[in-house]
Design goal:
four-stranded antiparallel β-sheet, 16% helix, alpha+beta, 26 strands, globular, 36% strand
């Protein structure tokens, strides 16, 4: 039997066909593997996600929130605080507003950046953690609102070291102001805004965040703790001896013993700052709540010793799976943004006590109120915070139903 060889023309046609497929395939693989991305990811091991089970069993108690509308062009009441019963929040266009009981927003000041965490003190000072401006302050006690910049750089351990991502603020019993600088790698001004910069930092997992302390008397601005994985919300314990911090990039809440942290710092010498790992090794910091089913954000104090946080997004299986595969996380960022492993919207806020016990859990699996960052109790109402909502969500709240 004679096998007929393909004609030269057919051979050339087949080669052209293979080449037409092979060349773009090689180009695509080269792009996915080698195209520069802004992150330099490192490996870590995510704990097994238990999902919405146990104390976090799925419920719909957060569904059907009432709404206080914002003005046109305003959105993102990311953190809500109160002073003398009046509610204040910061918005994505830079406005810091007070809300009347009917929800009519009145602009207090515009920061020119993105106000996130807020903390009001008894004397009427409103401290503002502005992601793009640093630590700011404004007086609520009357008269024109004069915006002051308190910290946009630190002077210890390195002088003139800029704050890159101011996120949360809390004031201790001495009047010192604590600021979380969530990422020293990704500046929202450079990387497309707060949400984009947070995604990059969490995808990279280098734990470049830090806590900064400002002394209003000496005006000293120093780093107190470094090596945190996107430190976010902060509140002090009722006795003022401990600081609670949500570590968004590790799905957990930390508790820091301030007296022991001071000892830890002194043993390092004047030219260094303790890392979180160093503080944990020496007993100055510990994990209070671990392995949450989402990314914890702001922390606020409620009634009866409750502390609230919001899970901005639920955890994603792909991102957890890629925790120890840095190359895969880099590859993900080479995909179109619509294909980034950002989990879907899911409303979820939780309350816990200072011992780390969950005392309440409210969810909306449909995510009608997007990116729930926490909740604030004021006058029998629970005001829910959001990164992107165009209204302030609220509901009556008389305490846990457990």
């Amino acid at each position: 039997m004679t096998i007929k060889k393909p004609s030269p023309d057919r051979q050339r046609g087949a080669l052209r066909l293979i080449s037409s497929w092979l060349t773009p395939l090689v180009a695509l693989l080269a792009y996915l593997l080698f195209w520069p991305v802004p992150i330099e990811p490192v490996a870590w091991q995510a704990p097994q996600d238990l999902g919405h089970t146990g104390v976090h069993a799925t419920n719909t108690r957060l569904a059907g929130l009432k709404a206080l509308p914002l003005s046109a062009g305003q959105e993102g009441p990311e953190h809500i605080t109160s002073h003398l019963g009046v509610v204040y929040t910061g918005l994505s266009n830079g406005d810091v507003v007070r809300l009347s009981p009917e929800g009519q927003p009145q602009v207090v000041v515009n920061t020119g950046g993105r106000p996130l965490g807020l903390e009001a003190t008894a004397d009427g000072t409103l401290y503002i953690a502005d992601a793009m401006k640093g630590l700011l302050a404004v007086n609520l006690a009357g008269g024109p609102a004069q915006l002051r910049t308190l910290v946009d750089k630190v002077d210890f351990p390195q002088s003139d070291d800029p704050i890159r991502y101011a996120d949360a603020v809390a004031v201790d019993t001495r009047g010192h102001v604590w600021l979380s600088d969530a990422s020293t790698r990704f500046d929202p001004k450079v990387h497309g805004g707060t949400f984009e910069a947070s995604v990059l930092d969490i995808m990279e997992a280098r734990c470049s965040g830090r806590l900064v302390v400002y002394d209003p008397v000496s005006e000293r601005k120093r780093v107190a703790l470094s090596g945190l994985c996107f430190p976010n919300g902060m509140v002090f314990s009722q006795d003022g001896q401990s600081l609670l911090v949500s570590e968004t990039g590790r799905y957990r809440v930390l508790k820091i013993d301030l007296a022991r942290l001071s000892v830890t710092r002194s043993t390092q010498g004047m030219s260094s700052v303790p890392s979180l790992q160093n503080a944990m090794d020496q007993g100055a910091a510990r994990v209070l709540i671990d392995n949450l089913p989402g990314f914890p954000d702001n922390l606020t104090k409620g009634e009866g010793g409750r502390i609230w946080t919001g899970l901005t997004k639920p955890r994603g299986k792909v991102l957890d799976m890629a925790s120890d595969l840095p190359w895969l996380r880099a590859m993900m960022l080479r995909l179109p943004r619509a294909l980034w492993p950002v989990p879907p919207t899911y409303g979820h806020i939780i309350a816990f006590d200072e011992q780390g016990q969950i005392v309440d859990d409210l969810q909306d699996p449909q995510g009608a109120y997007p990116e729930t960052t926490a909740a604030t109790e004021v006058g029998g109402k629970l005001y829910v915070q959001s990164l992107h909502a165009r209204q302030v969500g609220w509901m009556p709240y008389a305490g846990p139903q457990r």
